[in-house]
Design a protein that fits this description.
313 residues; Dihydrodipicolinate Reductase, domain 2; alpha/beta; Rossmann fold; six-stranded mixed beta sheet
């Protein structure tokens, strides 16, 4: 059994990490969040010590280490811009870090963490749960077995509408969230690069606060992509069904169904980390770099291939 600490206990994703810690037979000794709405801890680890101030949390972690109850892993569920700092805290506390995506906002942040890994001997693991989804694994196996010269045509469409609160939270600040390509698109970009190979060309057609779109040319695919958090961008059929989300990935015109099967992917991720098979810094670098490049790109008017949703918005 391993000892865990968790930073970001009041966040919406924290329950998945709490369940993963419990379901892998480990123990949570301490949790931190500036907000104290953490009654969820009662359902998983009621005995865990909870702190709203980092300084007291830091002191408690050090005290545990001196008593011989060293923290083995720190799970990080905080806002994107804080991941870098909290990962460094974990490594310097002689613990490994398990961090939500995006691991960091910029590729050079990863390079710095690689240096700290070498200095401390501890590791950073990223939650890239789509790589563990059965449908996505099946797609990768299929493409790996196809002829090497085959070039796939892919449409990625992901609309997840958000209310007015979004722009007034840290997610609405590009310097904190990384913008829509990072905050909404990072796991899809990681999945596509994992399956279809490295980025050869990245063309951005739209990059705004509430939506972005472009063309990606990967080693084995042409990808038309569109991301949005604007309710008005939803297709009419989605609105008619009172849906606030629309997600579709097609490969050569055939839709990939992966709306189900997400329930235990965080636990699966933790299981792989425990086995020594977690996704490290080098696995996160390609998608972090791509999302950064989209964020700073100058959009160009589409003259050739482009996502069909661009016209409708």
């Amino acid at each position: 059994m391993k000892n865990f600490a968790l930073i970001g206990a009041a966040g919406y994703i924290a329950p998945r990490h709490l369940a993963a810690i419990r379901d892998t037979g480990n123990d949570l000794l301490a949790a931190l969040d500036r907000f104290d709405s953490v009654g969820i801890l009662d359902s998983y680890f009621p005995q865990a010590h909870f702190f709203t101030e980092f300084e007291r949390f830091d002191r408690h972690i050090d005290k545990l280490k001196r008593k011989g109850d060293k923290i083995d892993y720190v799970s990080i569920c905080t806002p994107n811009y804080l991941h870098d700092s909290h990962i460094r805290f974990a490594l310097r506390s002689n613990a490994d870090a398990i961090c939500e995506k995006p691991l960091v906002l910029n590729p050079w942040n990863l390079e710095a963490l690689q240096e700290i890994e070498k200095e401390t001997g501890n590791k950073v693991f990223n939650i890239l749960q789509l790589r563990l989804h059965p449908s996505i694994i099946a797609l990768k196996e299929k493409t790996d077995n196809e002829k090497n010269d085959k070039l796939y045509d892919i449409d990625l469409t992901y609309l997840t509408s958000r209310g007015n609160w979004y722009g007034n939270s840290w997610k609405g600040e590009i310097s904190k969230s990384g913008g829509i390509a990072t905050n909404i698109g990072i796991h899809f970009f990681d999945m596509l690069i994992w399956i279809f190979g490295a980025v050869k060309e990245n063309i951005v057609h739209v990059v705004k606060e509430d939506h972005a779109a472009g063309m990606l040319y990967l080693e084995k695919a042409r990808v038309r992509w569109f991301l949005s958090i604007n309710y008005d961008h939803l297709p009419a059929e989605a609105k008619a069904q009172n849906k606030r989300t629309f997600r579709a990935i097609t490969v050569d015109g055939k839709e990939i169904e992966f709306s189900e099967g997400f329930g235990d992917l965080h636990t699966r991720s933790y299981e792989e980390v425990m086995k020594g098979n977690g996704f490290g810094l080098e696995k996160a670098m390609p998608s972090i770099t791509l999302a950064h490049d989209i964020r700073v790109a100058t959009a160009v008017v589409p003259k050739g291939e482009h996502h069909p949703f661009i016209k409708s918005v």
